[in-house]
């Protein structure tokens, strides 16, 4: 990322976030109860959200590299989101799964939930920051085993 | 005489709120990510914000890799919050109506200055403890429901498909156990 970004970079990120958050509200993913209802098989709608969204981004990932060499606001090439696979994907995924199953909330949905007026979700956000800090603290101290910088989303 | 088939579980039981609010909401989530991707080439995920924002206040080396992206990640998150508020002020408040939107029966609506807001009944200890595990797991596991679930699956990334299968399976097991123990809401 260069420092001299296009002046529309930040407005576009904000607009994209608004659409993203509106979708999380509309789909009721911002309500932990609805996520928990999916996980206990009382309402199976949730996969329509995740895969509906993945279809849209999937079209973009497939089409954009054929249309242009680089994104207009950053000059970055269009690439897919590909992460290397290792044990962390399974261990982290399992820990996330326990947390998601207990609380019914994930990061993006928690931000949107705050937006729809769910002040109580600040408990979850505080927990997320605490958890992210704890793993960052630990990994900063065991860098030798983590030297191959795994960038994460 | 044709015997009545054993009634299979009906769609109304599987999808008591229909599927349109989920599908339309999902398309919008994807559209938001797509807008950012088309303009910037960035496949955005929501959980990196947790670590990138910690880099403002912590010198831990792990967080420093996100210094370059932390400003726009704050904006992305702010946008998500505002998007939730926009939904509350329009569709949730009934100002904008759509046959594609099922209001559902989740309790928790309240009114502030004519805007219909919503708050959860899920107990704070579940949110806090679950949040800690979400914070650890998404960062160790290289992604959350948006990074792996939306952008990673959209990329047909094997890593993300395995990640999604892992957290989805474990989450279902966890929620079933918690419910079986009688914890509600």
Topology overview:
The complex is a heterodimer of chains A (153) and B (185).
Chain A: H1 9-26, H2 32-39, H3 46-67, H4 87-103, H5 107-115, H6 122-141
Helix pairs in contact in A: 1-5, 5-6
Chain B: H1 11-14, H2 20-40, H3 48-54, H4 61-64, H5 70-92, E1 109-112, E2 115-118, H6 124-140, H7 147-154, H8 158-180
Antiparallel strand pairs in B: 1-2
List the uncertain runs of chain B. none
Low-confidence parts of chain A lasting 5 or more residues at pLDDT below 50? none
For the biggest β-sheet of chain B, the strand order reads: 1-2
State the order of secondary-structure elements of chain B, H for helix, E for strand. Answer: HHHHHEEHHH
Task: Kindly report how far apart the N and C termini of chain A lie.
Answer: 16 Å
Roughly how many Å is the radius of gyration of chain B? 20 Å
Residue share in helices of chain A?
A: 55-70%
Q: How many β-strand stretches of chain A?
A: 0
Radius of gyration of chain A: 18 Å
Number of DSSP strands of chain B?
2
Per the principal axes of the C-alpha atoms, what is the gross shape of chain B?
A: globular
- β-strand percent of chain A reads under 5%
Task: Report the portion of residues of chain B in β strands.
Answer: under 5%
Cα separation of the termini of chain B: 47 Å
Sheet with the most strands, sense and barrel status of chain B: 2 strands, antiparallel
- Average pLDDT reading of chain A: 93
Q: Name the overall outline of chain A.
A: globular
What characteristics describe this protein?
heterodimer, A: 153 residues, mainly alpha, 6 helices, 61% helix, B: 185 residues, two-stranded antiparallel sheet, 58% helix, globular
